[in-house]
Amino acid sequence: MSPEWQTVWLTLKLAGITTALLMVIGTPIAWWLARSSHWLRQPVAAIVALPLVLPPTVLGFYLLLLMGPEGVVGTLTDTLGLGTLPFTFAGLVVASVLYSLPFTVQPLQNVFSTINERMLEVAATLRASPLDRFFSVVVPLARPGFLTAAVLTFAHTLGEFGVVLMIGGNIPGETRVLSVAIYDHVETLQYGKAHLLAGGMLVFSFLVLLTLYLINGRLNNGNLRS
Amino acid sequence: MKEPGILARFATGFAGFRLDVDLELPGGGVTALFGHSGCGKTTLLRCIAGLQDCAGYLSVNGDVWQDDNARLPVHKRPLAYVFQETSLFPHLSVNGNLNFGYRRTPASERRIHPPQVIDWLGLSHLLVRRPDRLSGGERQRVAIARALLTSPRLLLMDEPLSALDQTSKRDILPYLETLRDSLDIPIVYVSHSAPEVARLADYIVMMDQGRVVTQGCLQETLARPDQPFALEKDAAVIVPAVIRERDPQWHLCRAEFEGGNLWLRDDRQPEPGSRVRLQILARDVSIALTANPDQSIQNLLPARVIDIAAEQRPGMTTVRLQAGRTSFLSRITSRSAHQLRLSPGMEVCLQIKSVAIVE
Questions:
Q1: Quick check: A120 contacting B, CB < 8 Å?
Q2: Which of the pair, A71 or B89, is modelled with greater confidence?
Q3: Cβ partners under 8 Å of residue B224, min gap 6
Q4: Among candidates A124, A132, A136 on the partner chain, residue whose Cβ is nearest the Cβ of B74
Q5: Helices (DSSP H) in chain B: which residue ranges?
Q6: Domain B6-222 superfamily per CATH
Q7: Quick one: closest CA in B to A143, which residue?
Q8: What is the pTM of this model?
Q9: Residue A135 in 3-state DSSP?
């Protein structure tokens, strides 16, 4: 595989794994934020939103410290025989999950809060257990939110740069993702190669968003309104 | 040994409202929870369903659903609940909605099946439609059918007609009567509409401010002279009857009840043999000491005075009378009651000016 394709593949892999993990992690958080009236709700919402306002370098810096040999997480992973996470693909995944968390949680939280409590009560009187209610009522009604969350998370992870640089560096085949590669090409004045990757990413991102809006438009104009 | 009936004892309070009831309801037929809005009837229904968390005790025909130690979650209670407003799942077709509960009911517990319910509620032409393509009345019929397909042992209905217009109401009531007559499970029906209760209920529980004011079988409760919830002006009795003959010449029909016959206008043109509920307003019933046929009123019945109660409104008296085994109320002026020297046990003649079939 050429180094260019290796970079593209690594980037897609990182975005794909991050999105999949966040769908699993973000859904319960979003559900709790949308439904709970616990006093911790606002603090948790603020923490989830932090990556939106923090410079990626700040997040990357603290993750580097935490996951490094001297950090709490680093010591733990080291004793477990996993080594330390910085400058590995696994480290990138962890960082990406935290960095993209609000892009999963916020659209889901929004769509969850629009679901009428009555629908869940109806499902309960029709013998559906709590988990069954979630999958048979909430998920279908929240489909546009899930789609938005997945696409935004995926696209946002594709474009991350600061955090990757802080925590992953620039190791080909391990942590060298598209945005870093483009930066490299520009630094070394290889504008042709930079164009190829940058242009490709532009077109790809546009197509992803266009597809999202088309599908969401269709879902909203379809028969899903009550 | 199973104890039949529904035993419900709940005490709960929130936001300035207290519900405090201790009820023993019949294990079959339609029980109406009746009262003004805010009286706690919906809260009581939600407690029975388990949708609302409240301390208490509940058993349904011998099965304990809640006591001090345990409380069955909603989805484990074999009940069906019909909500006030549209509650169909918007992402499923009519058929998908109907099957939602049916699929989740163990096959061994299924006693009610789709073809039967689709027939009862007249849904066969709607199955592939989406909920937003249905009228209000159709949606509520689907919601009732969906609830029944869980083969419940208790059917709870929270003002199922209140969100509908008059036409839809008139259309759906006959379906509810079919259910009442076809199902062998108790139905608890919340309503603030006296005509609905008069038409459907067998047993009535009147509530006010979270408490039970009075309860009893519909006919007896409505025939109480001390009307407990200020019906006075509209006080009426409900008399079950069977149409026996129609007289086209005079545009009348004859209804037979336990204790005699009544003639009424043949406006509804009921089939001879059909069962109806007659409503007789207390203000349309007057009392004579002897039967006098030389007058315009056609319905004259021998009856006995049971009791006499002064109304809250000065100058008016309500008299309860019995003809055969049926109770009637008569609303007369206190002066008439005094001049006729009415007293319990007295034999008199009832003059009934107007009889209507409840619709």
A1: no
A2: B89
A3: B214, B320
A4: A124
A5: 41-49, 94-103, 114-120, 136-148, 166-182, 194-200, 218-222, 334-339
A6: P-loop containing nucleotide triphosphate hydrolases (3.40.50.300)
A7: B91
A8: 0.78
A9: helix
